[in-house]
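How it folds:
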Amino acid sequence: MHEQEPRAQFKHMEEGTAEDWQIISQAFGGFARELPDRVIDHLRLLEGDCGGFPVDRLTHCLQTATLAHQDGRDEEYVVCALLHDIGDTLGPYNHADVAASLLEPFVSEENHWMVKHHAIFQGYYFFDHLGLDRDLREQFRDHPCFARTEEFCAKYDAAAFDPDQETLPLSFFEPMLRRVMAKPKRSLYKKSFDSEPAAAQNA
C-alpha cells in the first residue's frame, strides 16, 4: 500500500521542490492524526510489567489518572497523569523527559513542567532508600510549578500502587486522550497544521 503513495523525488533536502514538500506535508497530516492510536498502543506495552512494584506499570498509570479524574481535574491534567510514565519502556533512565516531550505540543507549560520534573519530585518518597538525596526537588522550590508538581506526586502518582484500588480502564480515558491530542497548541509545525483544510484535518 505504502509503495503506491506519492513520494518526494529529492536525494538531499536542498534539492526539494515545493511539490516535494507538498507531498510530504500531506503525508504528515495523516500520520500525525494517527498519533493517539500509536500512543495507546505504546501505553499498552506497560501491561504486565511490574518492575518489582505492587502493580504493573499500566495499572499504575491508569490508577494515577483515575485518582486525578475522581478529584475533579480537567481532561488535560488527567491525560498527563495517564501518560506520565509512558517513557518507562524506551527511557528507563529519563522516563519523565520522554513523557514530557510527547505531551509538550498538546498541554500547558505548567502541565508540561509537572510531567517533566515528576521523577525528581517523586524521589522525595524513596531516594533516601537508594542512597540518593530525597530533597533533590528543593532546587526548584522557588519555581511557580513546584507546588503543582509536589501535589501531583503526593495525591496521584505516589498513591497509585494499590492492587485493590478502583482503577478505571484504558477505554475510559481514550476519548480524553484523543481530544487532548487532536491538535497541537504549540509546535514548530503548528502554523502549517493550522492552515490545513478542515476537511483534511477531520479525515
Q: What stands out?
A: DSSP finds ten helices and no strands in the chain. Confidence is low (pLDDT under 50) at residues 197-203. The first helix runs from residue 18 to 33. The radius of gyration is 19 Å.
